[in-house]
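hiii so um. not sure if this is the right channel but i have a protein structure encoded as tokens and i wanna go backwards to a sequence. like what aa goes where. can anyone help
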């Protein structure tokens, strides 16, 4: 569960930053 949330969060932040 933690890994999934962390992965999605990282992708979201990365996409937001560009």
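sure thing!! here u go:
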């Amino acid at each position: 569960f933690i890994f999934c949330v962390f992965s999605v969060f990282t992708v979201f932040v990365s996409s937001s930053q560009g």
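oh and The helical segments are 2-17.
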